[in-house]
Write a structure and sequence with these properties.
The chain is α/β, with parallel strands linked by helices. The chain contains 19 helices and 8 strands. An 8-stranded mixed β-sheet has the order 3-2-1-4-5-6-7-8, with helices on both faces. The longest helix has 34 residues. The radius of gyration is 26 Å and the shape is globular.
Length: 483
């Protein structure tokens, strides 16, 4: 009997859809699930007549695979992955490949790569983005781990992944050990930022302009034909048009508390670890945390009489300003995400292709948008680009958008409409483009109370000084450190 090209463990909806995708591209897949009845139901149901083999044990799965064996694990991130690895290792041989397609935290993937390689096998941690539809029709795939595994999995991965408008596969090798899952984590952080920015634009229209869901549906439909053309704008358009059984907009009946799975939080923690000012994405994570405090917010609202006055001026002109502010903030979201990837690449020794990453995100994934093509072009122009806002296209674009961006942020602040991501994006931009920040005073304060020393403008960088500010402290200084 012909052996399978790849095995997959975990027949939840993502696993099932990935296998159906593989079969549709001509690959034979063997499948296993801990609850074996799911294997039987899948093989006799959805997968009937497809090149999909059902296995009732891990041993049977291992025996059914071509060598080197390739096993795609689609199980819950965390200890379940480690337990499954331990179960599989005795069944495999040197050169076999384990692939983790869950949302694992990148340090876990780094640890697992080293461990599995120490046993003579290869390990891949791959980001998979696009949800259920993406898994079935073509996700964005971001593999990293053991480089020797890539030639064996590349034909399958690049066949099943989404394709960019020019036909390029939205999948390429990202880098060693945890690089794939790191890039997926940053993708999810940017996704948090994009979603929060759209929600802020929605609230400005709803509360400041008093617009109905139908009116906002029309606006998002128009915006999706501009530079904002993207999956998230598209689904926002569709959501605003969706009606409940009584004919009213469903969106108006949804409780305003948002959940999270942790990847946005991990992105913020990684930014703190690397010393990268990921302000917009962090605010997007905190906005979800604040939304979850529903009962407290309702009580607090009773204590503060805040009436939002109707926005003055021409509605059409203001809507265009909001669109421009949204686009400017979106640029900053990606600029910050790329800053974090650059810092992590330097820290962990990854050779990341920043233009290639933008290409991987052009199709299949949640943040797919026409805008990503501009990022790819920016890194094609200058692979060593320090920051996205310094690329000629983005610099000129931000200069054009800046007046509307400032006006909208000012309007939100003076009207009492929360816009944490949009305003923090503008504050970050002003800080990043400010040649002289007030950190000189901050360093003086630190030296005053803790003798932490400071550098001087009239001395070489790296030379540290301490002042006896009170006349009582003496000349002893604390060891220098950065915080």
């Amino acid at each position: 009997m012909k052996k399978a090209d790849i095995g997959l463990i975990g027949l939840a909806v993502m696993g099932e859809n990935l296998v159906m995708n593989m079969a549709s591209k001509g690959f034979t897949a063997a499948v296993y699930n801990r609850t074996v009845s799911k294997v039987d139901a899948f093989v006799s149901g959805r997968a009937a007549g497809k090149s999909i083999l059902g296995c009732r044990s891990l041993g049977e799965l291992a025996d059914s695979l071509e060598k080197p064996r390739k096993i795609f694990m689609m199980v819950k991130a965390g200890s379940a992955v480690d337990e499954l690895i331990e179960q599989l290792l005795p069944l495999l041989e040197p050169g076999d490949i384990l692939i983790d397609g869950g949302n694992s935290h990148f340090p876990d993937t780094m640890r697992r790569t080293a461990y599995v390689e120490s046993k003579g096998l290869l390990y891949v941690g791959t980001g998979v983005s696009g949800g259920e539809e993406g898994a079935l029709h073509g996700p964005s795939l971001m593999p990293g781990g053991s480089p020797a595994a890539w030639p064996y999995i590349k034909p399958i991965f690049q066949a099943i992944c989404a394709k960019a408008p020019d036909g390029s596969p939205c999948c390429d090798w990202v880098g060693g050990n945890g690089a794939g899952h790191f890039v997926k984590m940053v993708h999810n952080g940017i996704e948090y930022g994009d979603m929060q920015l759209i929600c802020e634009a929605y609230q400005l229209m709803r509360d400041g302009l008093g617009m109905t869901a139908d009116e906002m549906h029309d606006v998002f439909a128009r915006w999706n034909e501009t530079e904002l053309d993207s999956y998230l704008i598209e689904i926002t358009r569709d959501i605003l048009a969706y009606r409940d059984a009584d004919g009213s907009p469903v969106v108006d009946k949804i409780l305003d508390t948002a959940g999270q799975k942790g990847t946005g939080k991990w992105t913020g923690i990684s930014a703190l670890d690397e010393g990268v000012p990921l302000t917009l994405i962090s605010e997007a994570v905190f906005a979800r945390s604040l939304s979850a405090m529903k009962d407290e917010r309702v009580e607090a609202a009773k204590s503060f009489d805040r009436r939002i006055a109707p926005f003055p001026g021409d509605r059409t002109a203001l809507l265009e300003q909001i669109r421009q502010a949204l686009y400017a903030s979106k640029i900053i979201s990606y600029a910050q995400g790329y800053m974090l990837m650059r810092a992590a690449a330097a820290h962990y020794g990854w050779d990341l292709s920043y233009g290639g990453i933008a290409l991987m995100w052009r199709g299949g994934c949640i943040i797919r948008s026409a805008f990503l093509g501009k990022i790819k072009e920016a890194y094609d122009r200058n692979p060593a680009l320090t920051n996205l806002v310094l690329d000629p296209y983005f610099r000129e674009t931000i200069e054009t958008l800046l007046p509307a961006w400032r006006s909208v942020c000012a309007l939100a602040l003076t009207s009492g409409i929360p816009a944490p991501a949009m305003t923090s994006a503008l504050t970050w931009f002003d800080g990043y483009t400010c040649g002289k920040l007030p950190a000189n005073l901050l360093q003086a304060q630190r030296d005053y109370f803790g003798a932490h020393t400071y550098e001087r403008l009239d001395a070489p960088r790296g030379e540290h000084f301490h002042t006896n500010w009170t006349g009582r402290g003496g000349a002893t200084a604390a060891g220098t450190y950065n915080a």
